[in-house]
Every structure is written in structure tokens, then in C-alpha cells.
Amino acid sequence: MIRRLIFTFLFVGYFLGLSAQTSKPGVLVVGNGNAATAAALQSAISGVKTTIVLQAGGFDISPIGNNLSSGLEATFLQKIRDAKAIKDSTQAVTFDKQLANEVLLKWADSLKNLTIVKNLLWVKAENNSNSWVLKLSDGSLIRAKVLINPSDVKLSEAMKLSVQNASGFTKLDFSNTLYRTSVASGKNIDGTASVFSLYNFLIPAHDNLIWIEDTQSMLVGQAAGATAAYAAFFSTKTSQSNLKKIQGELINYKLNIMPFADIKLNDTNWKAIQFVGLTGVLKANRVNGNANFSPNQLVTTAEIKQPFKDFYYKAQIWFDDYKSEQMTIGSALDMICYVGNKALDNTKKEILKKWKTNYQFKTEFDLERQINRVEFAVMLQDYMPPFNVNVDKTGKVVR
After folding, report:
1. Could you give the angle at the alpha carbon of 187 between the alpha carbons of 89 and 266, nearest 5°?
2. What DSSP state is assigned to residue 372?
3. 3-state SS assignment for residue 326
4. What is d(CA 287, CA 125) in angstroms, rounded to the nearest whole number?
């Protein structure tokens, strides 16, 4: 009898322990809409254990607006095309919530770092000992280092959070250097290209909290996921986010950081154009509200002279000596080697070999010919990337 009571006690205790089990992901996302979904996907893709609490039976995706789609949003739309057997990648995509949910569940299930919690509500939420804790309706606990909250007001109230400083996409404006802090772009704002600053996520009063104001944007959701993953992966705080690392991660996963409408994601030199474009060394042209990179436009000395002086001390000396109004391939190469401390002859030979192979240029490598914007951007990114120069929270160059 005593043995039986002891066994019963242990048996019940075991299952009570299971019901109150605690999981400890690096990143916790609460929500099942566009932004929350993309945030969870990117955090997991970036190599961090991530849990998303849907508080429902599945995802609830709203139709994608008239965006310049890229990154996970573009991948999602392609998966919808595949599910509907649409072969034309330019065809507009429509989908219902059921199909979207099926596509996303299949995608999410393929990610080993992502845990999906369905049909459970959070009943208690708090910020405890440098972690965010949710108690779910089944009694289990989730304790995470970083919390992504896509505008869940009740959750914010429960955790006593103040998020008055939150903001969203802004129109691309080259008169303000804040565009250099962009981590997402492409939302259509009144027909005008836009960018989203990393620092719009961060709430000064609450570290390791990422607040998403725009719950319908997969673009900003992906950026939020990468930002959260950085803090969790490197065991740091979101207030110490490394802007360049996060931007690089997002560009590696094909998210447009700069909204160049005329450069396709499958362009061989898309990545170089993103990196260089983000610095403002080559600024976009406005065409009917779009921001175009204009890859075949010829580069003039006037348009790049001041930006390079801002980024590099040695550029001031080089441009003081260079008097031509045009930048040729030869002068661009000379400037890159002088400012970037490269051997001119060796660099010239390397670029000649890459011209039609790595870079896939259709033009000839003629040192006397005026260089165009894509040629200039690719050479820069390969041999003297201005992206590697640090900027502060306002986008101003820090040397």
C-alpha cells in the first residue's frame, strides 16, 4: 500500500512537473500576423532558438500591399506561386488565409530553430531578471532573452512597458543621413520609396524589447527578427546592436535595405549595389516616386567628391589633385588604390579577370572610358567598401 502511494505521488508529481515545464529560447515572438511571422522566421534562420506564441490555431496573414517585395516577403510570395502553380514570377499574387497558413506552417516546420506554440494563450507576463517570461494557459513557462512584441497593447500593459517612442517607415530622404541606419525598405508610402531605421525598433527604457509598430509588414518583421537574433546570439543587449552586422545579415538574406526599384533581387551585383547605395556615395534618382539606382548612368566627379571626402581622409588629397569632371574606369581604379592602400598594377589585373566572369559586365574594360554606376559600385565594394566605415545613430560618419 505504501509503495503504491509513493508510486502514485511520484507519478502525479512527474506530470505536474511536465505541465509546468519551462522553455528558454533566445527570442520570443508573440503574435500570428505578417510582422510577427517574418520576425520569428528570420530569428530562427539567423541561428537562434526562437519560439512564436500564436495564441490561435495558425498564422493570420493579411494581403501583401503594393510593396517593393524582397527578403522573406518575396520568398513567401514565391511559395504561394509554387502552391498555385503560377510560373510567371511577375504575376500578381492573391491568396486566402488558409493557403497562406498551410504554406507558412510547412516553411516553419522545416526550421529546426523554430518552435510554434498554437492554441494557447498567455495568462501572465513579466520582465524578470533580465528575461521576458510568459506563463501560458497550460501552466508552462517561456523564459526568453529578447522579446518581439508586434503592438500587443495588453502584453505591454501586463509587462508595464512604455513604448511612446516607437515609429515606423519614413520616406527616403538624402538630406538626412538617417537613411544609412536603414534595416528595411520598400513599403509604399503615398507612392514614395521608404526606409526603416534600426533605432525605430528600440525602446530606450526597455532593453531587449523590440516593438513593431507596423504589424502588417513582413519587411520590418524580418528586420526585427535579425535584430533580436543578434542580441540573443551574441549575449548582448539590443541597445548595443551592431548596425553593420545586422544590415549585413539582412542583405545576405536578400532584404532590400535601400529601395532601388530598378535592381532585381537576382541581379548578379544586387548585393554590392545595396551595400554601396546604403552609404549614399551614389544616391538614388527619383522616378515617379520610385528610388532608382540607374546602373548605366555615368559617374561624374561632382556627385562623388564630397561623399568620399566625408568617408575618407585620403580622398581629400586625391580629389584635390584630380581636375577632370568625369570619372573614368582608370581614374576610379587609381582613386580606389590610393585611398584604399592597394597596389595599382595587381588590382588592375584582378579586376580585368573578374570583369566579365565574377561581375558579369557586358561592357569592355577600357581604362579611358567613363565609368557607370554599377561598375563603380562593384569595384568599390570589392576593394574599398565605404559600408565598412562606421556611422552613428543618426547616420553620420564616425572616423
Report:
1. 35
2. B
3. strand
4. 48
Residue that the C-alpha cell 509513493 belongs to:
6
The answer, yes or no, to whether residue 145 has pLDDT greater than 60, is: yes
CA dihedral 366→371→375→378, nearest 10 degrees, is 110
Q: How far is CA 120 from the centre of its chain?
A: 29
Q: How confident is the model at residue 20 (pLDDT cuts 50, 70, 90)?
A: low
Q: Which residues pair with 171 in a beta bridge?
A: 194
pLDDT over 50 (residue 6): no
Distance CA 65, CA 223 (A): 18
Q: How far is CA 14 from CA 137, 141, 297, in A?
A: 19, 16, 70
* SS3 call for 195: strand
> Is 27 in contact with 48 (CB distance < 8 Å)?
yes
Residues 6+ apart with CB under 8 A from 287: 261
Please say whether the beta carbons of 116 and 52 come within 8 A: yes
Q: How far apart (Å, rounded) are the C-alpha atoms in residues 69 and 91? A: 13
